[in-house]
């Protein structure tokens, strides 16, 4: 693998070190942190078992109920 030398600030180095796992090179930390596909897969994976349609319906019903309650409050 070809290598290059890059300069980063002390703050950037400290942030990388904070995210560095044991026995892992900075190269691997940078690759892991910049892998957008991996981020999306992890995000979606967290919500595989959730029924989004039911969630939207529940929010819609609550909004309708809150609106009706508000209207009733104004009428009183």
Protein architecture, described:
- The protein is 71% helix and 0% strand.
- The longest helix is centred in the C-terminal third of the chain and has 24 residues, at 52-75.
- The chain has two domains: 1-34, no CATH class; 36-76.
- With 76 residues, it is mostly helical.
- The protein has helices at residues 10-19, 26-34, 36-46, 52-75.
Please outline what is shown here.
The protein is mostly helical. It has 4 helices and no strands. The mean pLDDT is 84.
Give the helix/strand layout:
Blueprint: H1 10-19, H2 26-34, H3 36-46, H4 52-75
Annotation keywords:
elongated, 76 residues, single chain, mainly alpha, 2 domains
Please provide the ordered H/E string of secondary-structure elements: HHHH
Q: Which range best describes the helical content: under 10%, 10-25%, 25-40%, 40-55%, 55-70% or over 70%?
A: over 70%
**C-alpha end-to-end distance:** 75 Å
Counting DSSP H or I runs of 4 or more residues, the number of helices is 4
Give the strand content. under 5%
Globally, the shape reads elongated
Overall average residue pLDDT? 84
| Strand count | 0
Biggest β-sheet, characterized? none
Kindly name the structural category.
mainly alpha
Runs with pLDDT <50, length 5+? none
The Cα radius of gyration reads: 24 Å
């Amino acid at each position: 693998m070809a290598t290059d030398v890059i300069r980063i600030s002390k703050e950037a180095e400290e942030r990388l070190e904070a995210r560095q796992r044991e026995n892992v090179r900075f190269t691997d930390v940078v690759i892991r942190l910049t892998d957008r596909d991996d981020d999306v897969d992890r995000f979606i994976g967290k919500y595989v078992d959730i029924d989004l349609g039911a969630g939207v319906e529940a929010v819609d019903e609550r909004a309708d109920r809150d609106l009706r309650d508000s209207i009733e409050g104004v009428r009183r």
